[in-house]
Write a structure and sequence with these properties.
Largest sheet of chain A: none
Largest sheet of chain B: 6 strands, mixed
Strand order of the largest sheet of chain B: 6-7-8-3-9-10
Strand content of chain B: 25-35%
Number of domains of chain A: 2
Number of strands of chain B: 10
Largest interface: A-B, 13 and 21 residues
Number of domains of chain B: 1
CATH superfamily of chain B: P-loop containing nucleotide triphosphate hydrolases
Structural class of chain A: mainly alpha
Oligomer: heterodimer
Order of helices and strands of chain A: HHHHHHHHH
Number of helices of chain B: 9
Helix content of chain A: over 70%
Distance between the termini of chain A: 53 Å
Helix content of chain B: 25-40%
Distance between the termini of chain B: 39 Å
Strand content of chain A: under 5%
Shape of chain A: elongated
CATH architecture of chain B: 3-Layer(aba) Sandwich
CATH class of chain B: Alpha Beta
Number of helices of chain A: 9
Radius of gyration of chain A: 21 Å
Number of strands of chain A: 0
Shape of chain B: globular
Chain lengths: 260, 253
């Protein structure tokens, strides 16, 4: 096979994959608006994605808040502006770090398991079995996970905000001896509710995108254990990159079109 | 002449340029057991999956009582599948559900049954039919291969479909277990009146119970007839298949 033939086949495959994903995405959106909803399953996935991830999300964002405060207090001290570090930590956490870090943790913890679970059902013909019983796998397996993610990503982001800000407060005031009253005052003064809700909106979008990507790879799995491993890796890599790209686009929209 | 419930006409299916089915023509008589034989990898499972509609053919038609499945919309196809049950090669039980939940799945999803007592009664009856009473609370990982297939069969016939498709039901089982599965197929057909389509390469055992035999070879149906016609046939490939199977049994003895 010649060089140009290989490139041609690659492009055809790429467009085929994009088309398949677009169809899958459209089907997900369609099924999300068609009742009945499986509340039992939504609750079950919410518990798995949400409750069971609180610990790891809290540890990750608490540490992030600590590191951020450590760096910011150190830098701002040069300008005698360390009391502004609290506001900087809170704004950075609520606008960017809390939604992004929460999404990364959930991609690693839950996104990969979504692909692995659905993918292993695919290779053992359980998905086919579901279809033979007139049940749409997308409706049964994907839609409840989508709803669960749309609820839990922002909920965990809200927790991450609180924990991260407290991590920063702890380091700045207890370890680096910044005046706690001034630190908190500047934080309340400068941080706006807009900073918080834009972060939560981002979390909703990330939750949707991560779940769609991970479930898509699960349902497209073929080729046994090796294929499953390949799909899980692809799901994690693509979800992570998608979160970053979506974050940039949303930030651009919020700043340039919403004046936030 | 038996009335046909399914008719496959000129069915083609390829995967990545490799043509698996190359113009399959086959009639399935109602209320009978039809067995499709053929070498491994010749597309027998692909044919079954086309019949139940989880694979779409590249060309050709599949008629269910005169209605072309290949031209049906998704909703019509979903409704039509209520007439069919499918026993997968490895049973394909949902591993996150217990035996009871697995059998209840089609009852809840396809028939819309919600009454707990009614569901339990039906599950009990189905498990008795497949000779596995009292395993409702077990999970698929706790069952042997033979037990999984029986539970798979209980799930496949739970909604009392008109046709049951068996994808190599005895593969991987010892001869005694294989025979008990064969007996179950016969019970499903004779006692429950369901049309059975069985895929197998265990030719020796299917001669004992099948009403019709079809040989899939090189993507087409090379032979279609009764077991007696098969025995009398001088079709080269069929003869080869039959003689090889019986030679294997003789050597095992």
């Amino acid at each position: 096979m010649g060089f140009f033939e290989k490139i041609g086949l690659y492009i055809i495959k790429l467009f085929g994959d994009i088309r398949d994903f677009a169809v899958f995405l459209a089907e997900c959106c369609r099924w999300m608006f068609i009742p009945p909803y499986r509340f039992g399953q939504i609750a079950d996935h919410t518990e798995r994605i949400g409750l069971q991830s609180i610990g790891i999300v809290a540890v990750s964002t608490f540490t992030t808040g600590m590191i951020l405060a450590l760096q910011l207090v150190n830098i701002m001290r040069i300008f005698r502006a360390e009391i502004y570090a609290g506001a900087a930590v809170a704004m950075a956490m609520s606008r960017e770090l809390a939604p992004v870090i929460t999404a990364f943790v959930l991609v690693a913890r839950n996104g990969s398991s979504m692909t692995a679970e659905i993918g292993s059902m695919k290779v053992t013909e359980q998905i086919d079995a579901m279809e033979t019983m007139a049940v749409s796998p997308l409706r049964y397996l994907v839609v409840p996970r989508l709803f669960a993610s749309i609820f839990t990503f922002p909920a965990l982001t809200a927790i991450a905000n609180v924990v991260g800000v407290y991590g920063g407060y702890f380091i700045a005031t207890k370890i680096m001896q910044v005046n706690s009253e001034a630190y908190l005052h500047m934080m309340y003064f400068l941080v706006d509710p807009d900073d918080i809700w834009t972060g939560l909106v981002k979390a909703v979008v990330f939750g949707f995108l991560v779940t769609v990507i991970c479930c898509y790879h699960g349902l497209m799995t073929s080729g046994g254990a090796k294929g499953l491993g390949r799909r899980t890796t692809a799901a994690v890599v693509q979800s992570t990159i998608t979160v970053l790209i979506a974050d940039y686009i949303l930030t651009y929209i919020f700043i340039n079109f919403c004046g936030l | 002449m038996d009335s046909e419930i399914i008719k496959v006409s000129g069915l083609w299916k390829a995967f990545g340029g490799h043509e698996v089915l190359r113009g399959v023509d086959l009639s399935i008589p109602e209320g009978k057991i039809t067995t499709i034989i053929g070498k491994s990898g010749t597309g027998k499972s692909v044919l079954l999956k086309n019949i139940i509609g989880i694979l779409k053919p590249d060309r050709g038609e599949i008629f269910f009582e005169g209605r072309d499945l290949t031209k049906m919309k998704n909703q019509e196809l979903l409704e039509l599948r209520r007439n069919m049950g499918y026993l997968f090669q490895d049973a394909a039980l949902f591993d996150f559900m217990s035996v009871e939940e697995n059998i209840c799945f089609p009852l809840v999803e396809q028939l819309g049954l919600r009454d707990g007592a009614e569901l339990r009664k039906r599950v009990e009856r189905l498990l008795e039919l497949v000779e596995l009473p009292g395993i409702e609370k077990k999970y698929p990982s706790e069952l042997s291969g033979g037990m999984r297939k029986r539970v798979g069969l209980a799930r496949a016939i739970a909604v009392e479909p008109r046709i049951v498709l068996f994808d190599e039901p005895t593969t991987g089982l010892d001869p005694i277990l294989a025979e008990s599965i064969d007996q179950l197929i016969v019970r499903v057909n004779r006692e429950l009146g369901m049309t059975c389509i069985v895929i197998s390469h265990d030719i020796a055992s299917i001669f004992g119970f099948t009403d019709r035999l079809a040989l899939l070879y090189d993507g087409v149906i090379e032979f279609d007839g009764t077991p007696e016609e098969a025995k009398r046939s001088d079709h080269r490939i069929l003869r080869q298949f039959i003689s090889n199977s019986f030679r294997q049994i003789d050597s095992e003895r």
